[in-house]
Specification:
The protein is an alpha/beta fold. The chain is about 40% helix and about 25% strand. The chain has helices at about 20-30, 60-70, 85-95, 120-135, 140-150, 155-160, 165-175, 220-235, 240-260; strands spanning about 5-10, 30-40, 50-55, 75-80, 105, 110, 115, 135-140, 180-190, 195-205, 205-210. The chain is globular. The structure holds 3-hydroxy-5-(hydroxymethyl)-2-methylisonicotinaldehyde.
Length: about 280
Amino acid sequence: MHKRAAVINDLSSLGRCSLAADLAVLPAMGVEACPLPTAVLTAQTGYPRYRMENFANKMSRYTTHWQELKVSFSGILSGYFTCPEEITATEQFLDTFQQQGIPYLCDPVLGDNGHVYRGFTEETIKGLQRLSTRADVLTPNLTEFCLLTETPLAAVKEKLAHPKDAFAYLQQQAKNFSQQRIVITGIHYKENQQDKITNLVLEDTTATPVVSDYLGGSYSGTGDLFAAVLLGGLLQGRPLVETVRLAGRFITCAIQDAQKENTPYNDGVNYEPYLEMLRKA
Ligand code: PXL
């Protein structure tokens, strides 16, 4: 059956991230993707400069028009916001279109490697905490998880000397999001002197680490690709852990391809040749 997802994210023309990633991945997984732009940028904000048009006061037009058309969605994804007003507009969108039984995946894009992205305020963090409590699935990286749950990143890093202890600690820190399934992405640590990268799936009382090869580097858009594959996989009917494995394999191929070509980190990864891995089995 035809599935249609609303994707609420920015449109950055360079960086292979946000809406560009959503609009490539979801249709490759057999899902129509309807963009609701939060902002339009000439390039993602990691580049030395960019031009940006905020869409906060245009977002309600989409909600109103789609409501007039009596459109409904099988899934909803939200990602990057440039200001708190875009989050408020997303809450209004959810008031209209969120329904029991359709997955809402909130990717709480806030920062990476211990740093908050440029221009993010305390109010944006509070707004993403509100959105996160309404979500079914959350896909924070470790920095974002710590910001959402007010967990000191240094404490997690220290515990990662014993990964099992660190995973149990993260599960405990997730207690304010007990209604959500959480995938903490890209947790990097060493085990027996070997670099590991894990996506940790927290569901009810279980914590399942899904380990990938550690490839190094921090490329634009990998979190956005991950979130899009997750929503697509859930809409294909795959279990969450299987979908996390699929996303990990897909992104590993795309990073290895980018590394072969020395692609700059800001330009994102070469995922285009691997989209066919995502087709429904
Ligand atoms: O990939 C996250 C992201 C999305 N959109 C914009 C960004 C970033 C990360 O820096 O700048 C505009």
